[in-house]
Amino acid sequence: MKRKPYPEEPEHNDRWLVSYADFITLLFAFFVVMYAVSSVQDHKVRQLSESIGQALGKKVHIKAEAGTPLAPAVPDLLPQSVARRTKSTAQREHKQMTRMALALDERLSALVRQGTVRVTRSSRGISIEINAAILFAPADARLNPESIAALQSIAEVLRFQPNAIEVEGHTDNRAIETTAYPSNWELSAARASRVVRLLIDSGIDDRRLLAVGHAANRPVASNETTQGRLRNRRVEIQVLAADSNATGTPTP
Q: What is the pTM assigned to this prediction?
């Protein structure tokens, strides 16, 4: 028996619309994702702007594409009042060091006129250069009795100041060899230590003090002349400025 043929389905000419609709849906999803990513990047840009502003302490403007809103500029984190306080502190410290130098110069005026003491200012602080001839006998580290009053006058000026103090011992280049001091190293260090001990006994906090012996390694004059060697045999008391304090500055 012959099978009855099924009727043919009519041809659909609009079948492409299904693929087109799928393509449009995917394209829409793609643009949604791109928009979401661009929103995240905008948030990151704002975070970057804020971070840079906090690090630099000033306003930071980051250019964005037209129509892209950004957070307002970060306010200045270093206001003028802070800058004024910093400048005021530096000026106050400068005036303090100037007054201290003038007081030391006045206390030691007689020795300054004789040329055995020099009080000078530098970016490091105040330097009090004392000729060793008025402090010690040759090749000795015991203080002369007449030098104690001068050192005590220095201590009276420095006693209630916060600055760190370095005491440096210096010699000329002539060799020394004794039982107590085998070389200029031991002699210069012993002289610096002896001055530090007197300053402590005069009321200066020992935590502010440092004794250093340089032997003949830091001359300020030629060792070829008698006057030069006399100048090189010295003790220097360095009163350090606040930004040069190497030994710490505890409050007395």
A: 0.64
